[in-house]
Amino acid sequence: MNNRTRDDSGRFTEELTEQGILKAFDASDDAFLTAPEIAELFGVTRQAVTNRLKQMEADGLVESKQAGANAVGWWATVAPRLSAEAERQAKEAERENAVSQEEMKRRLGMDG
């Protein structure tokens, strides 16, 4: 998940985004992640992740719990947003699969 690239001056061109972190939680099989685990996924420092997570917690996107003297577990309270294309495809599929109330009654044999 490390998609960070550097520009000609050696600076990172990608930033640690809320959506990226939310996607990491979504992709994980674990109940929670730690800042060092997320930092490893993105190739950034633990402190960069901790700062972003604290900001996200203040915004109500994640929650945390102290799990020991130095360990903090983090989990998402919201799902990552769909891309515009994925949202369009989901709406299209929903329209294609929509069944009217009358059709449902007919299918269930309740039309009489």
UniProtKB/TrEMBL annotation:
One of its GO terms (molecular function) is DNA-binding transcription factor activity. Residues 21-65 form the HTH marR-type domain. It comes from the Archaea. This is MarR family protein. Residues 86-112 are annotated as: Disordered. InterPro entries: ArsR-like_HTH, HTH_MarR-typ, Tscrpt_reg_HTH_AsnC-type_CS, WH-like_DNA-bd_sf, WH_DNA-bd_sf. Gene3D superfamilies: Winged helix-like DNA-binding domain superfamily/Winged helix DNA-binding domain. It comes from Halogranum amylolyticum. It holds the Pfam family MarR_2.
